[in-house]
Amino acid sequence: MKTGHDKQVFAVYPYRSACPTSVWGKLIDDSTSELVFSGYTNYFFWPQQPDFSNTLRRKADQGCRIRFLLGNPESETTRHRERVEGVALTVSTRIRMTLEELAKLGALPGLEARFSAAEDGPNHVSLSVFRFDADAMVTPHLASVVGHDSPLMHLRRGEPGGLFDRFSDHVEELWDRGLPIA
User: Fold this and answer.
1) CA gap 13, 17 in Å, rounded
2) Cβ(29)–Cβ(168) under 8 Å?
3) Tens of pLDDT along 5-29?
4) Best CA proximity match to 7, nearest among 130, 162, 133
5) How many CA atoms lie less than 13 Å away from 172 in the CB half-sphere?
6) Is the Cβ–Cβ distance between 44 and 148 less than 8 Å?
7) Distance of CA 48 to CAs 25, 94, 110, Å?
8) What is the pLDDT of residues 107-126, one digit of tens each?
């Protein structure tokens, strides 16, 4: 596997939290057609990205499709992950924080949100994929640590069937079986 600025794997971080927030901000700002947030909770964007809700509004106004795929806060997968992590800011609380922020956005053109299907919960909770046009940030979640302590790979779309496409296909499969959030 080749890495570097002109390859599929652009950067690797030992922790998601080691990736500068400016990298995330630039990926979001530079996206023109699609933003996909398919982390299990996605909550970290609001406290880490300045004025994130207005950024999403601006992106929607510019015609960008924005999708959020979340875990169901009431699911057995969520309850299991909470027991595994054992932290005060629970998984269900983090999901509810995202749901609250999405509700504040109201009906934006191009904004969609779904819960992953119950049978997909274990696959969703163990892998977060965030897509920004031809870039993706992928976090494979380690056994008992929270997302910010898991590694992160920054991928760029390369040849068809490469890493970017494989992770994108994973997201699309989960999305297609997901349930709309009322």
Assistant:
1) 8
2) no
3) 557 889 999 998 999 999 999 999 9
4) 162
5) 7
6) yes
7) 9, 14, 23
8) 888 999 999 999 988 888 88
